[in-house]
Amino acid sequence: MRKIIAGAALAALATACSANTGGTAASSSGGTSVPGKGSAAVGFIFVGPKDDYGYNQAAYQGSQAVAKAFPQLKVLTAENVPEDDNAARVMNSMIAKGAKIVFATSYGHLDAALKVAAEHPDVVVVQQGNLITGTTPRNAGTFFGTVYEPVYLAGIAAGKATKTGKLGYVYAFPISQTIDNIDAFELGAQSVNPSVRTFAVSTSSWCDPAKQAEAAANLLEQGVDVITQHQDCTATVVKATEAAGKMTVGYHADASSIAPKGWLTGSEWNWGPLYSDIVRTALDGGFTGSKYNGNFRVGYKTGDNPFVQSAYGPAVGAETRSLIEAAKEKLKTGSPFAGPVRDQEGKVRVPDGTIPDYETIEKIDYFVQGVVGSLPKS
């Protein structure tokens, strides 16, 4: 895998102490000394719990893959770290305990990550999922995978499975990643079912089971028979959809065990290889560059994507699987957003014959034609 992001070489590794990092839950693994360098640590902060059937569970599993790949390192973890100054406090606590590499894994951790990187030039600080613009510390960077690609493929499964032509999308906030996923899901469904529509409902929270249950009920009442989501914790929506006898497309982690009848497929993160490469690059002193101006992205085009498509459920037949596999091959040189792409008002946003690059896609701020719902006016 290519060298990652922009930054400075690591200084000598300091001594790691205990794993009490100041989050509401913390743990450690590893801890064997690096020969000639003393004991060393790498830290991970998560915005939610490590067993949420979703975003934080996948990130935690990635941290444990690092522990396995680098038994000489102590891996510090902290759950339920808010997207505010507490994030900087927890990261600083990890650094005080010897962390020379810190992963801030939530979208809203960016400001805290950049602040900590500026205060500790000998520590590599990477943030998961955002975009850095302007002048930033050389020891900081962002990374993410083009998850809207497997979401597009999952949209094909949904488009083929729906009997009402109505799909549902429960999302948290209208950030670029969420909008990309909603649009890609609808475009995938449209590719096999042109009349299909995706009804998007916001919970204004990454993990609020009560709001999630309300959103799912609202969609089901409208005749939606396939529901997916962009929430950190996914169990509530999956269980509600399964209980109603409808179909589910998963996100972040495998939740097929709680939807044995209605599970179609989904998009799961497999962060271990990418996390490990970032750690290896930093330890080797090679944290020295990326063509994405500090924003590192991997996907089907790069061949080293950190996500996997979930296993198929019983409702996905051979024809649908063949369509998905054919679309996956096209994504290696193409894009879910290959033109023409129109917004809800019918305006052409991506011209015919155009394949937008990753950075352009992450700046999309509109719903595509076929999505039902509105975005806040800026």
UniProtKB/TrEMBL annotation:
By its UniProt entry, which InterPro entries does this protein fall under?
Answer: ABC-Purine-Binding (IPR052910), Peripla_BP_I (IPR028082), PnrA-like (IPR003760)
The alphabetical list of record keywords is: Signal
Report the leader peptide range: 1-19
Origin species, per record, is Microbispora oryzae
The UniProt record lists the keyword Signal: yes
Q: Which residues form the ABC transporter substrate-binding protein PnrA-like domain?
A: 42-291
Please state what the protein is called.
BMP family ABC transporter substrate-binding protein
Q: What Gene3D superfamilies does this protein map onto?
A: 3.40.50.2300
> Which GO cellular component terms, listed alphabetically, does the Swiss-Prot or TrEMBL entry include?
plasma membrane
